């Protein structure tokens, strides 16, 4: 019996080695990159070697995935992915949820949203999904109202009430933190805020409600979802070790979905 057990252990080790696989996972800077590095530590003993590849904008990671340059990405929420697939024809598949990162309002000029003056210039992301999200956050914060017919992707043209006559400047999401000096306020995604040295908990003058539809996801090419490494990737992300890392590092500014 002892010999059979030892033999089984050896065979399992050989099988595990044979199944070892290398993948590249695309992420955006900040918390997505930091968390995926922790996921890689959990996945390595399971035979999955993850190389974390950072992209500085929101468009390239899906293109890189569609082109086969990476095997998965983890940086976006479903509304953004749906918009990308519709506009660019990507054939991609969600295989797991990750985190929610509430969007924050930041300013170098005011300490509270109530101090935002009439005619102030507010920066928002220039992609349809995150730009729309920013407008919905401002609506949630009672600064504007948008047409309900616009759904999750309202544009500036869908604003129905703007009592302070706010002006909006649409900029690349990654540029918004560096543009704060030229704006009265800006709505910035948490990953770009953290990557720029901003602390969402202490530097944001207002935050999006945690009750929102923008949970982030792990995405692969359609057809790869049943590959064994996909389950290992998702299970490693959803591990207790990664959850503890997120809770300890971000102190509630990044919320887990599991």
UniProtKB/TrEMBL annotation:
The keyword DNA damage does not apply. Its main location: membrane. Residues 1-20 form the signal peptide. One of its GO terms (cellular component) is membrane. Keywords: Lipoprotein, Membrane, Palmitate, Signal. Gene3D superfamilies: Periplasmic binding protein-like II. InterPro entries: Lipoprotein_NlpA (IPR004872). It is a lipid-anchor. It is found in: Membrane. Belongs to the NlpA lipoprotein family. This is MetQ/NlpA family ABC transporter substrate-binding protein.
């Amino acid at each position: 019996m002892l010999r059979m057990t030892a033999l089984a252990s050896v065979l399992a080790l050989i099988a595990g080695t044979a199944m070892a696989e290398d993948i590249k996972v695309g992420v955006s800077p900040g918390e997505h990159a930091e968390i995926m590095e922790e996921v890689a530590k959990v996945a390595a003993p399971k035979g999955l070697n993850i190389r974390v590849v950072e992209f500085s904008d929101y468009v390239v990671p899906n293109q890189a995935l569609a082109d086969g340059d990476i095997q998965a990405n983890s940086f976006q929420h479903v509304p953004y992915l749906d918009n990308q697939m519709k506009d660019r024809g990507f054939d991609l598949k969600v295989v797991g949820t990750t985190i929610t990162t509430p969007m924050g309002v930041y300013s170098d000029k005011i300490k509270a949203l109530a101090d935002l003056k009439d005619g102030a210039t507010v920066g928002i992301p220039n992609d349809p999904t995150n730009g729309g999200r920013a407008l919905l956050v401002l609506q949630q914060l009672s600064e504007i109202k948008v047409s309900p017919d616009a759904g999750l992707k309202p544009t500036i043209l869908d604003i129905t009430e703007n009592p302070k006559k706010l002006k909006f400047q649409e900029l690349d999401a990654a540029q918004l933190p560096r543009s704060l000096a030229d704006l009265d306020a800006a709505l910035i995604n948490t990953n770009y805020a953290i990557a720029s040295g901003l602390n969402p908990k202490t530097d944001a003058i207002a935050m999006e409600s945690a009750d929102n539809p923008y949970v982030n996801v792990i995405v692969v090419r359609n057809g790869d979802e049943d590959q064994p490494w996909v389950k290992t990737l998702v299970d490693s992300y959803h591990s207790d070790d990664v959850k503890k890392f997120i809770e300890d590092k971000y102190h509630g500014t990044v919320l887990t979905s599991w």
